[in-house]
Amino acid sequence: MALKPRTATQLDVANLAKVSTATVSRVLNHSSAISPNVKARVLTAIDELGYIRDAGARALAMQRSGTLGAIIPTLNNAIFAEGINAFERTAQELGYTLILSVSQQNLDHEHDLVIKMIERGVDGLLLVGNRHNDAVYRRLDQTGVRYVCTWAHDAKSLSANVGFDNRQAMHAVVDHLFGLGHRQIAMLAGQSLDNDRAMDRITGVRERLESKGLSLPANRVIEVPYSVAESRKAFTAVTQKPVTALICGNDVIAYGALLEAQKQGVDVPGDLSITGFDDLSLSAELSPALTTVQVGAEPMGELAAKKLIYAVDNQLDVESALLQTELVVRETTARVSIQAFNVLR
Amino acid sequence: MALKPRTATQLDVANLAKVSTATVSRVLNHSSAISPNVKARVLTAIDELGYIRDAGARALAMQRSGTLGAIIPTLNNAIFAEGINAFERTAQELGYTLILSVSQQNLDHEHDLVIKMIERGVDGLLLVGNRHNDAVYRRLDQTGVRYVCTWAHDAKSLSANVGFDNRQAMHAVVDHLFGLGHRQIAMLAGQSLDNDRAMDRITGVRERLESKGLSLPANRVIEVPYSVAESRKAFTAVTQKPVTALICGNDVIAYGALLEAQKQGVDVPGDLSITGFDDLSLSAELSPALTTVQVGAEPMGELAAKKLIYAVDNQLDVESALLQTELVVRETTARVSIQAFNVLR
DNA sequence: CTGAAAGCGCTAACAA
DNA sequence: TTGTTAGCGCTTTCAG
To answer: How many helices (H) and strands (E) are present in chain B, helices listed first?
Structure first.
């Protein structure tokens, strides 16, 4: 069966049921009252022909596709996968279909994908972060496609945000470590190029340290890809100077730091405290269990879908929502010890 | 801006450029030779109006959407996320857009999603596994939508398969453990309901054990959801009887077993050998590093996209491909010790 | 090389 | 309650 057979159309159904196509459309859409008799005939005809309607033609006529787009940096990061999983599930429940594209963390590429999404006629679009090419905003405004930026929340943003405040979340981390007596703090951050969330996390750490009279000099922060292996490689360099606490850009990076510390015989949290960000499900299971920031990717994905669809369905602007993060203190952070872990180890 | 502004159409471009819509279509599709002068006028008009074409209308006219569908059990499993990430990337590179739906591991739900995919006019469809409702196969044949079943390979399957042999992969695991002297083997499997891959892995273990004169009685295999926490809970029960080796349905389950063993003071691999399945990137980093089966989700996703698109573009049947899995022996498996780990621990 | 016109499958007035 | 008739925005013969 290499040739695409011509499938039944509404017209075929109409002919078989001896009604007009308009009537078929009506029973399919429950749009107006239909006599039981006619309705039954139509339903039978549909069944008999195995008719499946053409959503594309429908969208063309209705000027509404029933699809939502989502453009994310990568799927190879459990936290994005979890958020999109929830977004898709919610969209599905509310009658929408998901079109998904991955930008590979490249904003120019993201722009091209936005155009493609508009071509596809998505009714709403999910984007990650608050940093996008100007052309993206221009196109979105021009076409009136509603969109929501997630994984971040900036009160000053002109776009709708359903997300959390990355900087503030890091403030809580710094406060926690400071309260435990840590003064020698370094950071293993995510790569900030084209990534405002990673940037905000660095900024959050830095500004909070400075507000306490400390600092985060450039040589105390190393940026790495979100990967355990890469994180391990950078661990030694970032702990070269005396360091009692290491703040990681996300949980995956923290796993790398923790595993490498253990391999090098550095006691966590005795010699070194480590924190993560995301609270992946594994983080609670490790030993020592990881102190981290819970971001709630699942509720975020769900809420983003709801807000977006509500706006689309009611022709309103998308509403923002600020989600709260929570510092989850577990076993990788402890009061700084007398003989702090240092370069002499 | 709550109202969707009317956006420029091909007709607007045509008017501004003083040509016919057919010409606009031609320059957009590079379909036939155009005089440089006319082409320039069209391009200018497009730019001036910020024209973006309507893929839906295009699909209706061409009877081809340029989209690929994918229906997967869940995204909350790194291995699926990785496979889909590769599938999407490849589709994108070849000019296709991905429509993604999650079936939540429910075959009836999957059927509904297949119908929706057909409504959307996908040119090709990716499915996971070889077990689907009869109606799914019927609809797919009826409409002529090409599809490929992944994450499994069965030479007897009537559908195209791009995947690996789950049973055979487990044979290698059993052989490995047997070679190390293990005779008391139990299994912490994935849930086999609506999941032929999980089922095949159990079958693979069982048939290989039996071929060696051993057995896998029902009380030696416990099925658990793919979650570290759930796996930990089941660990004690499955190791109740004397057991020297534990085969896990995937890496996540193996993580749970490993962590719980460590917590209970069971030495791995001294007292108990543990194996996983998938070879997630973390598996190589743990200590002890996990012995597992590498399945290559990334090349599989890529190949599935290529095979599917090739078939669509050339009106051919989709070709199957059998991918090889590889047993990666690391540190969680070892020769069975004299005083085997047993119920007396 | 370019234009005119038909039509992809559906919905939405407007009539009846 | 039902049918008729325009399109929705695009591609594609067929002429010229």
So the answer is: 12, 12
* Total residues belonging to chain A: 345
SS3 (DSSP) at A187: strand
Contacts of B231 in chain A (CB under 8 A): none
Could you confirm whether domain B166-295+328-343 is CATH 1.20.1530.20? no
CATH number of the B66-164+296-324 domain: 3.40.50.2300
Burial class, A68, CB count within 10 angstroms (exposed 0-12 / middle 13-18 / buried 19+): buried
Predicted TM-score (pTM) above 0.90: yes
Spell out the domain ranges in chain A: 66-164+296-324, 166-295+328-343
pLDDT of A342 > 60? The answer is: no
Would B66-164+296-324 and B166-295+328-343 be classified into the same CATH topology?
Answer: yes
Which residues 26-45 in chain A have a CB closer than 7 A to strand D? 26, 32-35, 37-39
Q: pLDDT for B66-124, tens place per residue?
A: 999 999 999 999 999 999 999 999 999 999 999 999 999 999 999 999 999 999 999 99
Contact: B76, A54; criterion CB under 8 Å: no
* Strand D bases within 7 angstroms of protein beta carbons: 1-5, 7-13
Q: What is the spatial distance between Cα B194 and Cα B108, in angstroms, rounded to a whole number?
A: 9
CA of B280 to nearest chain A CA: how many angstroms apart?
Answer: 11
Q: How far apart are CA A200 and CA A203, in angstroms?
A: 5
Look-up of token digits 């698109």: B309
Q: Which residues contact A316 (CB under 8 A, 6 or more apart)?
A: A310, B2
Comparing CB atoms, the residue among A56, A119, A255 nearest residue B52 is: A119
Distance from CA of B310 to the nearest CA of A (A): 12
H, E, C per residue of A99-164: EEEECCCCHHHHHHHHHHHHHCCCCEEEEECCCCCHHHHHHHHHHCCEEEEECCCCCCCCCCEEEC
- B120 contacts A228? CB cut-off 8 A: no
d(CA B100, CA B73): 11
Positive or negative, the Cα torsion across B185, B186, B191, B192? Answer: positive
For residue B97 the two structure tokens come to 């857009």
| pLDDT score for A151 | 98
pLDDT score of A276 more than 50: yes
Report chain C positions within 7 A of protein CB atoms. 1-5, 7-13
Residue in the structure block whose two tokens are 């082409």: B39
